[in-house]
Design goal:
The chain is mainly α. It is built from 11 helices and 2 strands.
């Protein structure tokens, strides 16, 4: 299989998705934009839903990869969370992503598409952060009983009102690298200091 064609197809699909939301993502449009035949496209992805899932997973993978670790101590946890959140904020504050959110808000979109993107994107991010918090807790002989809730709170603290700023066509607050990292270190250290860990299960318990 020609990986260059795969890359061209995903690049074209990404451009269409960001320009007009899922409604713009059709197999015909992707084939035309990527310069491949529909037969070539269908050999790689059997339908539009499969292509959409592959595209969202491809976009999320570099961000989520930073969470696939077992933090041995608090500093390692802080570093892992700052790296992830820095990548996340860089992604969502890019002009292309801002246009995507505005298009989703302005144009009719299929509910099933939005649900799929939600579960493969934002919800998966929450799940991966929660899993990281659980691994950290286990390293300390503890448990993080409300890890999903903690994870969602952390991402909300990091994002602040930037999503609302996007929808109101205001510039994001943390688009400069130095300011963004300073903000994230501040957020993560306060989050970790208040992270609620409970006692772990005793052996044989």
């Amino acid at each position: 299989m020609d990986v260059r064609k795969d890359a061209a197809i995903l690049h074209a699909a990404r451009r269409l998705l960001l320009q007009g939301g899922p409604a713009q993502l059709t197999m015909e449009a992707v084939a035309q934009a990527s310069g491949v035949s529909k037969a070539t496209l269908y050999r790689r992805w059997p339908d539009r839903d499969a292509l959409l899932r592959a595209l969202v997973a491809h976009e999320a993978a570099p961000l989520l990869h930073t969470l696939h670790t077992v933090p041995p101590d608090e500093e390692a946890l802080v570093r892992a969370l700052v790296r992830f959140l820095d990548g996340l904020l860089r992604f969502v504050t890019r002009p292309a992503y801002r246009r995507y959110l505005q298009a989703v808000a302005a144009l009719p979109q299929r509910r099933a598409d939005l649900q799929r993107i939600w579960h493969l994107g934002p919800q998966q991010a929450v799940d991966e952060v929660a899993a990281l918090l659980q691994r950290y807790a286990v390293q300390r002989g503890a448990v993080c009983a409300e890890a999903p809730r903690e994870a969602e709170a952390l991402i909300g603290m990091a994002m602040g009102l930037d999503m609302a700023r996007v929808l109101y066509q205001q510039p994001p607050r943390h688009h400069r690298a130095a300011a963004r990292r300073s903000h994230l270190v501040w957020v993560v250290r306060r989050f970790v200091a208040g992270l609620a860990l409970g006692p772990g299960r005793q052996a044989g318990g």
